[in-house]
Amino acid sequence: MRRPLKFILVTMLINLPLLAPATDVFQSTSNRINVLELYTSEGCSSCPPADRWLSNLKEDKRLWLSLIPVAFHVDYWNYIGWTDRFSSGRYSDRQRKYARLKNISTVYTPGFLLNGNEWRSFFGLRHLVLDNTENAGLLTVKVEQQQVYAEFVNHSNPVSPPVFSVAILGFDLTTDVRAGENGGKQLKHDFAVLGLHSVPMSKQGDSFLITVKLPATSVSAPRTAIATWVSNGEDPTPLQATGGWLNSPQ
Q: In 3D, which of 152, 148, 161, 151 has the Cα closest to residue 196?
């Protein structure tokens, strides 16, 4: 017996799963989560080894639990023949700000900072020692429908007003470089910052709160993650952080 079309459509709708809005929630411990920043460029012949080393941190058991790596592609090497599609003047300015604050000796690539301080062990034993003993407060972040909701609570070392930063990180990215110092090479990138927002938080009771849209991304990536951190005023040094893989499509 043939069922009427209306009956078939109603039956299909009833049997569809209920689709709740996708939500990703990230939370730090009260101890400091370490942020490792790499300043790199596709136009720098010395950078691919640093990029490859950073990519290996995808397999580090400390990833997201006590370590958040981020790769900022600077734009000051673009003039020598190849424009890095991940680069931004904002990322170059961030590195220059560290130099003005004497956190790094000078602006260079590849350049690493660990918790806002110059980290030169990459050029030696490459042994990444993390310090998780400091009580840095609790950072909680929820991502839902392109909105980011963040709360920061820190009774032991109050910061006023903290600045909240959210970055979208891209993974499994590949570029065939056709000019410049890396001309003819295929470069692979992970933890690449594809978009960044930094906004002051507002105090509400014992907490600092902020709601902000996810940053727009410069390119699409096969896999994405989020990195978030709080800093103090004009000093970009991360005080506390959290992040992880994004399950919902961006």
A: 148
Distances (CA, A) of 248 to 21, 28, 198: 9, 20, 22
Task: Give the torsion sign (CA, 233, 119, 65, 243).
Answer: positive
Domains and CATH numbers, the chain: 22-245 (2.60.40.10)
Strand-pairing partners, residue 178, are none
Q: What is the pLDDT of residues 193-243, one digit of tens each?
A: 999 999 999 999 889 999 999 999 989 999 999 999 999 989 999 999 999
Residue 163 burial (10 A CB sphere; 0-12, 13-18, 19+): buried
Contact 173, 188 (CB under 8 A): yes
- 144 near 21, Cβ under 8 Å? yes
Give the other-Cβ count within 10 Å of 14's Cβ: 7
Answer for the pair 235, 244: CB distance below 8 angstroms, yes or no: no
pLDDT in tens, 148-193: 999 999 877 777 789 999 999 999 999 999 999 999 999 999 999 9
Q: What are phi and psi of 67, to 5 degrees?
A: -145, 130
